[in-house]
Amino acid sequence: MKKVRITVLKTTFDAELAREYGAPGLGPCPMMREGDVFLADYAKPAGLCDEAWKAVYQYVFALAHGAGEGLFYYGDWIRRPGVAVVSCNDGLRPVIMKLEATDEPSTIDYTPVKREGCGGCQSCGSCAGSSAD
User: Fold this and answer.
1) Which phi and psi (to 5°) does residue 32 adopt?
2) Is the pLDDT of residue 45 over 70?
3) Model confidence pTM above 0.90
4) Which of 26, 84, 93, 120 is least crowded, fewest Cβ atoms below 10 Å from its Cβ?
């Protein structure tokens, strides 16, 4: 698995919709700024908005696992391999992000939890990722 670079391209704000539906004083996203860069793989990077991660993690996962070798959606969306342009799901102030596959290897930086007496996922079949039937 490789890391994926997330770059904030643009923060937007729909003033017309915000006047009709937004809370008083609502403005552009307060969490992310144009030019912010994050590296991601299997987990949300520190500092990235939770809602933005929910909207983009499927693309990150696909790119991290090699989908960047071809074009997304049969080449009728993005013309560059290894790139996706996506947005968060905030309808009043969406943030537009570019996702790029990198050659930087991903590493697991946590210790997996083992159950008492666990011999690993191949032994009992109850762990996620088990191939036991």
Assistant:
1) -125, 145
2) yes
3) no
4) 120
